[in-house]
Amino acid sequence: MQQPSLNNLNDIVEPGAASWWPPSWPTIAIAIALLVGTASFIFWLIRRRQQSHIRKIAIRQLQQDRNISIEELTVILKRTALAYYPREFVAEKHSRQWISFLLTPLSEKEKATYESLLNEANKNFYGIADNNFNQQYYELAHLWLSKDLSKQPGAEDV
User: Fold this and answer.
1) What is d(CA 80, CA 59) in angstroms, rounded to the nearest whole number?
2) How far is Cα 49 from Cα 68, in angstroms, rounded to an integer?
3) pLDDT tens-digit profile of 3-12?
4) Among 22, 84, 124, 142, fewest CB within 10 Å belongs to which?
């Protein structure tokens, strides 16, 4: 039997480096998930910053005028609330319901301090306001604005 000669064999050709394009389906899915996640995070960050800015403006307005009327104070608070809650949720609140809404995020001790505002709400919102009610309402407004409004009940509906 005759032995084949090594001269007749072809050289081994190595394959080229694997290309990254086109990517595999899992790579595409991961890239899309990362892009959507990044876009969602940026949108959330921008929204939160805008809400925080509105709250800071409201606090600044309160600090500029300590003798603000009940109507003006309520307008400031409702504008701020509209940044965090749907319009229908805020618009339906008035008098006792509005005070109750402002008391929602407070601790039990803080609620007890301002509970008297609920009993006097109708008289003071729709009648002649007394100075004690004005002062307590101002303090409640300042306390409410100092809370993280995005963590209040109903904020997730926005």
Assistant:
1) 10
2) 27
3) 767 777 788 8
4) 22
Determine phi and psi for 122, rounding to 5 degrees.
-60, -45
Distance CA 85, CA 153 (A): 10
Question: Residue 86 has which token pair?
Answer: 């749907």
Record the tokens describing residue 13, joined without a space: 């050709």
Q: What's the half-sphere exposure (Cβ side, CA atoms, 13 Å) at 53?
A: 6
Question: What pTM was estimated for this model as a whole?
Answer: 0.71
In whole angstroms, how far apart are CA 62 and each of 7, 22, 55, 142, 143? 95, 59, 11, 7, 11
Closest-CA residue to 82 (of 42, 110, 50, 35): 50
Specify whether the CB–CB gap between 58 and 79 falls below 8 A: yes
